[in-house]
Design a protein that fits this description.
Distance between the termini: 24 Å
Strand content: 5-15%
Helix content: 55-70%
Number of helices: 14
Structural class: alpha/beta
Order of helices and strands: HHEHEHEHEHHHHHHHHH
Strand order of the largest sheet: 2-1-3-4
Number of domains: 2
Length: 371
C-alpha cells in the first residue's frame, strides 16, 4: 500500500465531501432534525391524559379525590354530569378513561367499608392503557394513604413495597430514546453515505478513471473509509452534545469509552455501506437496499424503542445479526448506568467481529474490473 497514493485518495474524498452538500446534510443536518423530532416530538410518557370524571353525589371525600386528579401531571380531568355522557365522550375519543364515583362513595369511605371506584379505560392503544391504569392505581393508593393520615391512622396493607428506581429515576422516556437515536443516526451516516458515494462514482464515470490508475483495491477502500469515518465521528459528537446539553440526558459513563465504542460501531456501519455498494451501481437501488437492510432494522429491532425481550423468539434471534442492537445496549449503559464492563466488553466484541465480517465481505466482492 503506497502512502502517497492513499493520501491522494483521501484528499480526493475530502474535497468531494466539501463540494457535496448532500454529504454534509446527512452527516450534520440529519442528526439535528432527527434529534429535535424524537427529543421534543416523541414521548412514551403519558402526560395530561384527558379523563372523564363522574361524581354521582358530591361530598368532601369526592372533592378530595377529584382534587388529587387535578393536581396530577398525568391527568387532565373533565367532569361530566352522568355516566352516559362520559361513555359517549370515550367513544368519540375526547377522553381516554372514565372515573366514576358512586353516590355512596363518601359514606363508604367514612364507614371504612371499602369504597369502589368505577374505571373504564380506552384500550385501543394498549401501552397507554397500561400506563393510565398504573397511574390511576398509584393515585388511588396515595389518596387512601392521605385519608388514613387525616384520621390519625395509617393505611393497613399486608405488604408494603419500598420502590427504588435505578438509572432513570425520573422515568423520562427522553433519557431512553435519545441515546438509542444516536445509533440510528450513525447507521444512516455510515451505511448510506458510503453506499451512495461509490454508486455515484460509477454513475458519473469517475470510477472507471480511478480503476485506470495504479491504485490498488485496498487503497481505494481505505481511501473512501477514512474520510467518512471522520465525518461520521463528527456527526456522533454533535449528536452526543445535543443529547447532553439540549435534552439534559445524563452521561454517567466514560467519554473515552463512548468514543471508542462509537468508532467500532461506525466501522461496522461503513463496512456495511461498502458491502451494499458492491451489489449495484445505481444510487437509487443502493439507497433502497441501505434503508431496508440498515435503517429499518436499527429502528425496529435494536431495542431503540421496542423491548427485544418482548419479541417472539425467532425475532430475538434475528436481532443478534444487527449491529445496532449491540450499540444501543452500549449507549443506554454509558448514558444511564455508567461503565459496566459486563455489558460493554461483550457488545464491543460483537461490534468488532461484525466490522471485520463486513469489511472482509466487501473486500472479497470488490474487484479492480469494469465488468
Amino acid at each position: 500500500m503506497n502512502r502517497r497514493r492513499l493520501a491522494g485518495l483521501m484528499r480526493k474524498e475530502a474535497l468531494q465531501i466539501l463540494r457535496d452538500p448532500s454529504a454534509i446534510a446527512i452527516a450534520f443536518v440529519l442528526p439535528v432534525v432527527l434529534l429535535l423530532i424524537f427529543g421534543y416530538g416523541v414521548s412514551l410518557d403519558a402526560r395530561h391524559v384527558p379523563v372523564a370524571v363522574v361524581v354521582e353525589r358530591p361530598t368532601p371525600q369526592t372533592e378530595s379525590f377529584v382534587a388529587g386528579l387535578r393536581g396530577s401531571a398525568q391527568f387532565a380531568p373533565r367532569e361530566y354530569a352522568d355516566a352516559a355522557r362520559a361513555r359517549r365522550a370515550l367513544l368519540a375519543g375526547r377522553v381516554r378513561a372514565i372515573v366514576q364515583l358512586r353516590a355512596d362513595f363518601g359514606r363508604r369511605v367514612l364507614d371504612g367499608r371499602g369504597a369502589e371506584v368505577g374505571v373504564w379505560i380506552d384500550g385501543v392503544d394498549a401501552n397507554t392503557a397500561r400506563i393510565v391504569q398504573g397511574y390511576l392505581q398509584g393515585m388511588w393508593q396515595n389518596w387512601l394513604r392521605l385519608q388514613a393520615q387525616s384520621r390519625g391512622g395509617s393505611l393497613r396493607q399486608p405488604v408494603s413495597a419500598q420502590e427504588r428506581i435505578w438509572f432513570n429515576p425520573a422515568l423520562r422516556s427522553r433519557d431512553f430514546l435519545v441515546p438509542g437515536l444516536v445509533a440510528v443516526i450513525m447507521t444512516l451516516i455510515g451505511a448510506l453515505l458510503t453506499a451512495l458515494v461509490v454508486a455515484r462514482e460509477w454513475e458519473r464515470g469517475t470510477m472507471e478513471s480511478l480503476m485506470a490508475t495504479p491504485v490498488s483495491m485496498d487503497e481505494i477502500l481505505l481511501g473512501k473509509l477514512l474520510p467518512y469515518f471522520v465525518l461520521g465521528m463528527g456527526g456522533m459528537l454533535l449528536s452526543v452534545a445535543m443529547a447532553r446539553w439540549m435534552f439534559q440526558v445524563p452521561l454517567r459513563g466514560s467519554v473515552l469509552l463512548l468514543v471508542a465504542c462509537s468508532a467500532l460501531f461506525l466501522l461496522s456501519a461503513l463496512g456495511m455501506g461498502l458491502l451494499i455498494s458492491t451489489l449495484s451501481r445505481s444510487q437509487f437501488v443502493v439507497a433502497q437496499v441501505a434503508v431496508i437492510s440498515t435503517f429499518l432494522p436499527a429502528f425496529l429491532l435494536s431495542g431503540f424503542i421496542f423491548d427485544i425481550g418482548s419479541m417472539p423468539p425467532i425475532v430475538q434471534w434475528i436481532t443478534h445479526v444487527i449491529a445496532a442492537r449491540y450499540f444501543v445496549s452500549i449507549l443506554h449503559t454509558l448514558f444511564l448506568a455508567g461503565d459496566i464492563q459486563a455489558v460493554l466488553l461483550g457488545n464491543s466484541a460483537a461490534l468488532a467481529a461484525m466490522a471485520a465480517l463486513f469489511f472482509g465481505a466487501a473486500r472479497l466482492r470488490s474487484r479492480k474490473r469494469l465488468d
